[in-house]
Structures are given as structure tokens and as C-alpha cells.
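User: Can you recover a sequence for this backbone? Please restate the input before giving your answer.

Assistant: Of course. Working from this structure:
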């Protein structure tokens, strides 16, 4: 029987069997060949810490509010993108045929029965590794635009997960003169240097803001992009930008602590802190830019081979080993950047 990767409880990944569902009108059945996870976003759910899992979102007020309503946190699906082949087509489906190679968003599982308009044909010459990096590229693309990175800028990327490593590459595509990559994990700094960063710092060993000031003739960063979610990283991003500089916060930042100080450099240097999230619409450049245009632009960069995915999609394991591999994400950040699976 096909299986899917889920968390049945806090930090408890398992492979659960299910039965394929025959496609109904307008639907297709896709047999998975490759899938991948999104560690940062999934981590809050996996650890049972996501605010939206414990609070109710009021769409009218645009607030997360306390609720007496009992909410079931688990089971929760793990994984977020897949590549596969269309195995069956339901009635009245146009533009999709049996045998087509397609991709889409969904949890890591052996098959998907879903509306045909939720999958897209694989572009010629694009690899599965590149496709599953389209999601981090989407949010990195949004951060580069929201942060207003311009040609000649000094840009710092704090947190070198999949999105951060895409930010490094896209900052160079946008014309940044210098890109600084900051992360305590050595292997991630090495990947950043291999994919476009000019300098990489371990924040546990140096005063990052001071080193950036030295490297930029005391100017500091024009734009800092924070994608670790650590209050200390956000604080260092604030310290690292120059007067009037911009900090684009893309991660779901953990509750602040004494590590985050908004009275020193933030106050004296008139720092701009903005929230960046590509799929929250309208975008800052609405109506010219929307999430679909961001995704299409990111995909085009993969087609043109201007972005590298292979160093980011690691490790790749057989889907039969998915639960064991997922359980190691927290323990082995040197190896785990974007866990992916091959499906039989």
C-alpha cells in the first residue's frame, strides 16, 4: 500500500499507510517519484509550537487570538513539494494526460489524487531537485524584492537554511556588490560561499556587525535578510545594517528575549524592519507583482540555470527511510538542509 509521512505527536514522525483514491471529475492521480520537506516552516508544527496551532486566526481583524475552541494538533502532514507522473485522469480533465511528468505542493507521500489545476507540467531541462527548491526560491525572491536589494548593495543573509541559501544566490542575481552569509553551521557557510556569497561568518566566533563594518568601509549593510528565526540573529541583523538600512524578517521569529535589543543600534540608526512573506497578498508592489509572478520568475531562473539546487537538496533517502531520516533533522544540521525522498 502507498504511505505518507506524518507526525502523530510532537517530534514523532511515522510512515502511515493509506489507500489510493480514484480520481473524480476534474482530478488526476499522480504517482510520486521525488518529494521534499521544508524544515523551517514544518519545525514549528513538528515541535507543537506553531502559534496558529494553539490560537485562532481572526481573518477580519487579522489577528491571532486566544480561543476556548479545542484544536486537534496532530496528526499533521510533513513535506511540501513533489514531482511525479500522472497515472490516472478523471472525467473532463483537459491539458493533462496519463504519463505526463508534473509537480505540485503537498505532503510527502507515494501518491496524490487532486484537482488537475493543482499540478503543473515539468519544464524541459529542469530537475526534480530544482523543482522542490522552487518553494524556498519563492520566499527568497520575495525577500529580495521586499528588502529592495539594488545593484551595488551590501547584503547580509542571516540563517542559511534552504531559503537563506536561495537568498544568497538571488542577492547576487539582483546585483549586490557584496553578500555576507551568516550561520553557525560550517557546512552551510561553505555552500553559501560556493553559490555566491563573498564572505561567511560564524556568529558564535566573531562580532558579525563589527566585521561587516570593517569590510564595508564602516558603512554597514544596505539590506539584511533574516531567515533563521532566532532572536539573536535578528538582533545581529539590526546591528549590521547601516544608517537607514533595512532588515527583512522572513522567518517566524521565536519569542524574543534579552538577545533582542531594540534600543541601541535600532534606535540610533533608524533601522527599518519589514516583514517579508511572498504568499501574503497584496504584495508591496501590488498590482504589478503578485505571488504568481514571483513564482514564475523564480522558475525561469531555474530554467536558465542561474540558481543552484543540488547543494541545498540534502540528504536524499529512499522514502522507506523517511521517518528515521526526519527524526534526525534537529540533531544533524551539518547534513540536513532540505531533506528529500526518492519514491519507488
Amino acid at each position: 500500500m502507498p504511505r505518507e509521512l506524518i507526525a502523530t505527536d510532537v517530534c514523532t514522525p511515522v510512515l502511515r499507510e493509506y489507500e489510493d483514491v480514484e480520481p473524480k471529475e476534474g482530478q488526476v492521480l499522480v504517482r510520486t517519484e521525488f518529494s521534499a520537506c521544508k524544515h523551517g516552516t514544518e519545525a514549528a508544527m513538528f515541535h507543537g509550537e506553531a502559534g496558529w496551532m494553539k490560537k485562532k486566526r481572526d481573518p477580519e481583524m487579522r489577528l491571532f487570538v486566544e480561543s476556548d475552541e479545542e484544536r486537534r494538533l496532530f496528526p499533521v502532514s510533513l513535506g511540501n513539494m513533489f514531482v511525479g507522473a500522472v497515472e490516472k485522469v478523471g472525467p473532463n480533465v483537459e491539458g493533462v494526460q496519463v504519463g505526463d511528468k508534473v509537480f505540485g505542493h503537498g505532503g510527502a507521500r507515494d501518491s496524490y489524487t487532486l484537482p488537475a489545476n493543482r499540478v503543473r507540467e515539468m519544464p524541459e531541462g529542469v530537475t526534480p531537485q530544482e523543482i522542490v527548491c522552487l518553494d524556498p526560491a519563492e520566499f527568497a525572491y520575495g525577500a529580495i524584492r521586499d528588502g529592495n536589494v539594488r545593484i551595488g548593495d551590501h547584503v547580509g543573509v542571516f540563517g542559511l537554511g534552504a531559503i537563506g541559501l536561495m537568498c544568497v544566490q538571488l542577492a547576487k542575481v539582483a546585483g549586490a556588490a557584496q553578500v555576507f552569509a551568516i550561520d553557525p553551521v560550517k557546512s552551510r557557510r561553505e555552500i553559501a560561499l560556493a553559490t555566491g556569497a563573498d564572505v561567511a561568518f560564524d556568529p558564535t566566533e566573531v562580532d558579525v556587525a563589527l566585521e561587516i563594518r570593517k569590510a564595508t568601509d564602516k558603512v554597514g549593510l544596505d539590506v539584511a535578510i533574516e531567515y533563521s528565526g532566532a532572536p539573536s540573529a535578528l538582533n545581529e541583523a539590526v546591528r549590521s545594517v547601516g544608517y537607514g538600512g533595512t532588515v527583512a524578517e522572513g522567518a517566524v521569529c521565536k519569542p524574543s528575549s534579552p538577545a533582542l535589543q531594540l534600543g541601541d543600534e535600532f534606535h540610533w540608526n533608524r533601522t527599518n524592519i519589514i516583514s517579508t512573506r511572498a504568499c501574503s497578498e497584496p504584495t508591496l508592489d501590488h498590482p504589478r507583482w503578485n505571488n504568481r509572478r514571483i513564482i514564475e520568475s523564480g522558475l525561469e531562473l531555474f530554467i536558465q540555470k542561474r540558481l543552484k539546487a543540488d547543494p541545498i537538496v540534502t540528504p536524499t533517502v529512499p522514502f522507506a527511510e523517511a521517518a528515521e531520516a526526519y527524526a534526525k533533522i534537529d540533531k544533524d544540521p551539518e547534513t540536513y538542509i532540505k531533506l528529500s525522498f526518492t519514491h519507488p
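That completes the design. The first helix runs from residue 39 to 46.
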